[in-house]
Amino acid sequence: MRRGWVVWLGCSLVLAALAAPARAERDLTENELRDEMQHNRMLEAYIERNGMPDLATARFLADTQPWDDHEVALYYLDKRQEIGFARAYILGRPQVELERYRRPLTDEQVAALAARTRQRPLDSPAPDLAPAPAPTPRRGGALSPLERAEESARRSEDAAMRVERAADAAERAADRAEAVTESIQTSFRESLKK
Q1: Distance (Å, whole) CA 139 – CA 141
Q2: Residue 143: DSSP 8-state
Q3: Would you tell me how many other CB atoms lie within 10 Å of the CB of residue 91?
Q4: pTM for the full model?
Q5: Cα separations (Å) of 11 from 2, 4, 18, 21, 55?
Q6: What residues contact residue 158 under an 8 Å CB cut-off, 6+ apart?
Q7: DSSP character at residue 127
Q8: What is the pLDDT of residues 135-150, one digit of tens each?
Q9: What is the pLDDT of residues 68-115, one digit of tens each?
């Protein structure tokens, strides 16, 4: 009896040790982030508006009900901001996509995250966009304040262009809807005359 208990406890500890890394926070590659964007439309819309983050991580959510098993955190170092996105379950499917939180980053956090971004940057553009190339880092790996400002301005311009294209598309759709409504009203009036 005692031997069985010791074996059970030992197996439990081994399984817990193997499962721990799977639940830890991990940095996402650009391809992994794009996969997450396909599953979470709110995350995708945010990145399309604001550009690719300096770093993205996935972390396990302990509170799985009603949340999905993980969340994605985006880090924008020039804005000193961390934004978390997750999906919630409704009727057994993760259908609700939410921004869970938005936090400011301290100087220490920015410094630690900057070291991680030099190892695995997420600075390439989305496939449907072709913005100007990002500035190359200096020898030490960090961008100067002027280069960071230029990069931020480039991201803002890209976001403004996307918003302008979306506004043009919405205006064209409104014009089409107005034309269809007018044609329906005209045909209705003509049918009343008969």
Answers
A1: 5
A2: P
A3: 5
A4: 0.50
A5: 14, 11, 11, 17, 36
A6: 51, 125, 129, 131
A7: T
A8: 555 445 566 777 777 8
A9: 778 899 999 889 999 999 888 777 776 778 888 899 989 888 888 888
